[in-house]
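Attaching the record inline, Q. Sequence:
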Amino acid sequence: MKKFNFHVLLVSAFALGQALGQAQPVVPGLLHERHGLDAAGQGRVLIEELRCAWCHKGPVKRKLGPDLSAVGARVDAGYLKHFLLDPHTADPGTQMPDILGMVPEDERDTTADVLTYYLKSLSDKKFSRANVDASMVGEGKKLFEKVGCITCHAPGNGVGLKHVPAKYGLDSLSTFLFQPRHARPDGRMPDMNLTRDEARSIAAFLLGAKELRVSELKPNPAKVQAGKVVFRSLNCASCHKLPNQKSQLKLPMAELTAGKGCLAEKPDGVPNFDLSNAQRESIDKALAGIEKPLPDRQQIQHTMTAFNCTACHTRDGAGGVSNAMFQHFGTDEEGLGNPGRIPPTLDGVGAKLRPEWLRKVLFDGETVRPYMHTRMPQFGEANLRHLPGLFEKVDSLPVVKLPEPKRNDRRKYREAGHLLVGDKGLNCVACHNFNGKPSPGLKGLDLLNSFERLQPSWFVHFMRNPQKYRPGIVMPDFWPGGEAVRQDVLEGSADEQLRALWHYLSLGRSARDPSGIRSEGTDLLVADRTRVYRGRSRVAGYRGIAVGFPGGVSYAFNAQNGALTALWRGEFVSVYWGGQGAGNFNPKGRAIELAQDLAFYRLAKDNAPWPLRPVMTKEQPVNPDPLYPRNRGYQFGGYQLDQNGVPTFLYRTGEVAVEDTSHGVVANRLTGLVRTLRLNAPKAETVYFRVLTGKVQKLAPGQYGTDSLKVSVPEASALLRGQGEVRELLLKLNLPKGKSEWGIRYELLR
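Structure, as predicted:
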């Protein structure tokens, strides 16, 4: 008897359901023909994705529902009411259940109406529409397909978008696409590293040029209050967290019965997800073993399916770009072949990448393949923080030691590595950029990040057999059968040559350019609008953000530690190693550098030492405290731009939320910054803020400075500690419960 592939059947069932007008909830990762999960595994994904754990206690992750606090400004009132009345018609494939089906039929319209009033009342801003410039639609379509949106929103086989024009306006959709996790913290709609202009173009494409009216609501406090009561009574707070609304847990997950409640073919008196027969069956099978935790390898597979990583990446035989989607994966370097357009396999990634780098890729938007058009989505650390540890735990390779050469031998290995990389050696620079400088041939990934990215054992195994670890790569084999093709370098020893290459690459940015490479960079200019550039920098760390103001004042912010770390006047920055905001930047002007340590901390007493960031050296290249900022209460939350492009950095110190905004000033004999810190504390407490370090002197009440910088601070909070050239100016902030505001002025003296 012929065997049927369940995964193919599931995809076919979805397509048939769409054709018949059914609207079963869509989980993109489960539509992939090669997700690799059995029926119980698929059911477990559905249980998590449909947020069952918010009503039924069980050992699965609780996926957050959309943030409704600003839904009034984001969504049209007419669409919102339609969606509440009949979500599966308004948005076919939605994971939102039909809640109002539990309400008597003659009361549903009134219930949807008051709920709409209540939800719209949560936002002070009004929803608006704007005419779409038809010229933006074509560019938006190209971007939609180019950067990777289409992998989850493939027409007829993905998350549908036909409802979008009725739901959003141009401004609200652009804002959502620019920073989607603000509205949907679950991360399933990831941050695609779009610029504001890119987000607006894609929004224009999704909305189209057809003009739609705004559904107006007249003020009605009675309906708002009634809607608030209904929101509570229907247990909407189980998925959507709002102030003064509490959720109610129901029957534990392990006690759920197949074919009953939400799992009934025709649910009655409970939320109706409009599940297909295949979905109900897979959930039933998952519930049978729901109390058993998933083994590590299955947990990885489960996560990759839930977040649809399998649409781009392969691992353990599952996933990968389908033939239908291949056309949408582009590259600027066709000569690199498929590895230049298709995201790399995740087989063995825990043994390949250093843990710190893996976290940078997943949580900081780090990228080394600027030629690849498809972008790595950012799902958020809160959603994937478990994944790097699992990869590291599961993946392994035979250990290969690459010891640091002894002092007397370092020059020999350095010179050998320099020769091998250059065009007079193995000519690696024919296909690879080096230290931000372009290769004369193919522009493959920059060699100088190898030491920072890769585990040494993987480096050796890969170099000895590139095709084994990246099939289809154009990388030649320089040590076929273990024999070196260059017998005149280090006596032809493959082990010694690989050790020399590793040592040379370990020199980082200080490595001497190999023969065949040339220096080239890009200067960024500031015109009449504030300019922001993200990338690594010696003045701001690997999560650096440079901000340049019209008038010639600039500063750098270290998002890793939450510190303003440099100020300068004159031209903005020079950028090397470009690509999706990942290039390293250097100030064009002479920068006044500040400390890159944590900026906020809770000291036990006024004279307690400040916690300093760990410093890595060539002798100690591994970060001894990779969670330094997080372990001390700091968490970065992104940034927002105002209409002039001025960023406000959002972060937390403990439970205190911080909004950090600086404006450049060139007027009234002041050249510098005016910085405003707006803090929101859930309870009264004291935190310390480190303003300035070095040879700091008190100049006047509320004024302190060094030879190059003067700061003005609230004198009552100022605390100057230390002696001589090792001094630090702190602000002791006695925070009240709720909101408070603090100002600092920086004046450049050179």
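Confidence is low (pLDDT under 50) at residues 1-22, 577-582. The first strand starts at residue 314 and ends at 315.

More tomorrow.
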